[in-house]
Amino acid sequence: MLIVLEEKEMKNHRRVLVGSLASAALMSLFLVNNGSVKADEVVQPRQVQQSSEVRVTTNQDNAKKPNNDQWANPANYKDDIPVQVLGINDLHGNIDTTGKAYVGRGMHYNAGNVARLSSYLNNAESDFKEKNPEGNTFRVEAGDMVGASPATSSLLQDEPTMKSLKAMNVNIGTLGNHEFDEGLGEFDRIVEGKAPQKGQFNQEEQNYPHENSNLQIVISNVVNKKDQTVPFNWQPYLTKEVKAGNKSSKVGFIGVVTADMPKLTFAKNLKDYQILDPAETIAKYDRILQNQGVNAIVVLAHTGVSTYKGKTSGEAVDILKKLYQIDPNNSVDLYVAAHSHQYANGTVGRTKIVQANKFSMAYDDAIGYIDPKTNDFVNGSLITHVYPVMSPKEDKFTKADPKVEAIIKDAENRTSKITNSVIGKTTPGTEISTTLNDNKENAVGDLVVDAQLFEARKKGIQADFAITNGGGVRSNLNIENDGSIKWKSAQAVQPFNNQIQVFNLTGKQIYDVLNSQYVKNGERYYLVGGMRYAYTDTDDPSHPQKVAVMLDGNGKQFDLNKTYRVITSNYLVDSTAEFKGAKKVADVGIDTDLFVDYFKDQTAAGKLILAPELNRKFYLTKPQLDELLNKLKQETQVSKQGTTNNDLGEKNSQILDKTDKLVNKADETKTSEQEQAKKSEESTKIIYVFSKAKREENTLKVVNEPVGKNSSLATLTRSKSLNRNESKKASLPKAGAEDVSWISWLGLALTGLVSFFGLGIKKRN
């Protein structure tokens, strides 16, 4: 038996010639003599690629806009069908906001706004069809289009967002965790454009023109518990026909959401549903599609991924690796990722993977050519890029889409009476941002917990301290040029309408909550008010760091057996194992309202809103920790001889206060703008897991200065420079989220890969 194949008809690593040893020998003869027959004379089985052989590579994005050099040459594919997929993710109702985005190798300021995004999508499609007049374009989204949205959209139940998606011709999408925020029934309502029940929402929402979004939802791994069907008549997959002249084929679309959903939404939102394993579900429907003759397959997946410093990693990469384990012969060509709000462009095995940041700041552009004989993308033809949605200042030639701009303006007019009211004041030029320092602390988050503590105490509610998850802090605090702060700015930071409550927790429970941040592939980081703590390295690769010392608001060490009154959200208590068993003792209010009230109260008292000092979390080396514990022990002994508890608290707090200050300052000067932006983008979805690395020792000395409890009295004398950025490398936890420990570096030496895990954005994440 002699089998002859044309090179273009073999998909890279996807087909192998099978048969007897005699057939293989004949094949060798053919290769020597350049024989030729038609490819449709044989069915080519896919190449079996074991999971250990699955390579992860990173694709280059050097251009700000599409150009001819970035794609396969259409002249080489005249017998094939051109296909383009334009993708977006994690819009979160940010129809009129802009921000800082790192895409490819460049930083872009004031990126985003859906009216400009629409124009970029239109231009990308026009550019594609200019070179491929018979081309087929699909516009898709990978989840979290709604939820945790700014007021312009959220006050109208995100219907302006759905209307904008329709105007942009985004017509295939999947579920993200935030589509569950108000229940899937409410999401289905706005997808279908049905009117809400009378009195269910505010009058502006009741009056808003409701219309069908034309968005087809594909979701394969969310099923009804009672009968294992996909809810609301959505589909686990769908196929779309593509044509070029008299040639035709089909593209298959499969949708999945992260399996970490139980940690991302209220239990009540999942009570009727089962979340299936994403990789297993993709494998199932990939086989179904292949059996239907559909070999060009796109997965829309709300699972995180990141490309950073040349490495592509995250939950989505892990899912694809598992897919190759389950089915080395899978036919997934493109994986449009989401959830971790990061830039990504890579290849896992044979599968291209992309993610376009967040909030309309970027978009995915994938172009390839389908062979109508194999119904699959031609080998090497599918190329992916991610492009920024640049500001008018950076790109004066691209104008906002007037059709989408009108939708935004209408929504702004309907909500402006509330959103534009001034609630606070600060010094012009002040920045209060979500940018994280090395200890996973940011100014906006500290302001949030301070506000909750202040408002609770103002109401006469006894509380010791407040804690929130970093993912619940959704935005920088936007400040007007004159220093005024508007209602919409505060709401954008705390948009959830979660209940803020007081719970009784023991010191041990509090320790467990905070310590959970530092497990390998941890999924959350916390922000605290009214307390401080230090963490250090461990020798346990499953728990690379641990909380070492906790001090209360008076500077006293926590008593693990004592019960404390802790302010936090009902969401955290509902979704976090370490909070289980916490007893609610008081209701404080709604998160948005408390934050707004805090600004109003400070203004009424004649106070400016200022960025808190980032001094609540500290990293200590082991020698530093030993020295600290020794000093605390000495101070405790002194206290027994007559020093007051308050004096002791001051000294304990003083020891922590400046221990890390010089380290932070030195590191900040060495941290590039790119790394800072990376941290800012990760602030809604990532917890660092720190690597073991040799750290140069620092010495601690106490400086006797008469200052208050919250002031800094200890300083650090550095024997040598200590750059914690070199020993703490940002990573994505496996949950999609959603640094590598020493064991990961061992893996690096063995495989040449750094294993990253994509952090899942928690519901309040």
UniProtKB/TrEMBL annotation:
Q: Name one GO cellular component term.
A: outer membrane-bounded periplasmic space
Asked if the Swiss-Prot or TrEMBL record annotates the protein with the keyword Manganese, the reply is no
Q: Name one Pfam family in it.
A: Metallophos
Ranges of Polar residues composition bias in the record: 46-61
GO biological process terms held by the UniProt record: nucleotide catabolic process
| Family, per entry | Belongs to the 5'-nucleotidase family.
Nucleotide-binding in keyword set: yes
Q: Which sequence ranges are marked TM in the entry?
A: 742-761
All copies of the Gram-positive cocci surface proteins LPxTG domain together span: 732-765
Under InterPro entries, the record lists: 5'-Nucleotdase_C, 5'-Nucleotdase_C_sf, 5_nucleotidase/apyrase, Calcineurin-like_PHP, LPXTG_anchor, Metallo-depent_PP-like
Task: Report keywords, A-Z.
Answer: Cell wall, Hydrolase, Membrane, Nucleotide-binding, Peptidoglycan-anchor, Secreted, Signal, Transmembrane, Transmembrane helix
State the protein's name: LPXTG cell wall anchor domain-containing protein
Q: Where is this region: Disordered?
A: 43-74, 659-678
Show the NCBIfam families listed in the entry.
Answer: LPXTG_anchor
- Superkingdom of the organism of origin: Bacteria
In the record, what terms sit under GO molecular function? Answer: 5'-nucleotidase activity; nucleotide binding; UDP-sugar diphosphatase activity
